[in-house]
Amino acid sequence: MLPPVDPRVLEHNPNFDVLYKDLTTRKLNPDGSTRDTKKQRIHDEIRRSLTDAQVKLTSSQILIQSLSDLPSRAIDLPPELHSVIEIVTAQLNGHIQDADGEIISADVEFFVDNISAISDAISTQLGIVVDYLCKLADPKSPPAISNLSMSATSLHQDASKSLPIDLFTARIQLTNTMSSLLTEHLSFLTTSIRVLEQNQHGALARHTKVTAELLQTRATVLGLQAKIHTFARPPPPEFVAALKEFKKAQGSGEKALRDREALAKRELELYEKAGEKGMRDLAKRKQWLMGEMGDVEREIRRLHQS
Fold it and tell me: 74: how many CB neighbours lie within 10 A of its CB?
């Protein structure tokens, strides 16, 4: 088999392209062997003779095998022919010596006399086998028996010639595709490395890093300058007076909150000392006072109306 050649090599080398086409079409066979027309003709004749001999041998073997299986498969065959068929089959297979030919001569004559019935039975069995072969050749649409030989020849040619050539062509295309893929992969890796150099390890990355460090340094310097300014210069008197007033206001507010907290705690202690009974008495007194207040308000409204 000829090795595949990258199409780009053929494009870049026109002379080699012409030589390669001449070799593949005129000088060499698809399998890589040297093409010799005279020898190929002789080989073709030998191949045809061998094919004819193989066909004859195969036909004889099929007939003998069909004849040996006939007694067990042919239901309509007369029983007296079974033993005769077995004897003739044994003779055809070489199991009976030539010296015993006179012993089985009567059986052979009986076999020949009934050859028409035997041939019909064999034809029937072979017809069944041929039907199976048609279904095997094309399960979806089995060919006719007359076209079976053509279908078998086509299948054999496809399996022995067309398919290897198609496979070889597909391998070449796959190799070319793989070469293109590797080239694209190399280009992708080159671009990726260039991008990494520019963004992470190149001038742009270094510039970004230096800019960030410079901004951080400036911020640190500004913070130190602010602290130095605060420690070196005292605050103005107005600012100090405002802080004192604010602190005084906070102190008075804090004192008022503490007084309110103390009053609330004292009331809570009184409630705790009074207990549940005292709270009920207070509730009753409140209810009585509310009633008295309502009576007084009604008297006042009555006096105003009069």
Answer: 20
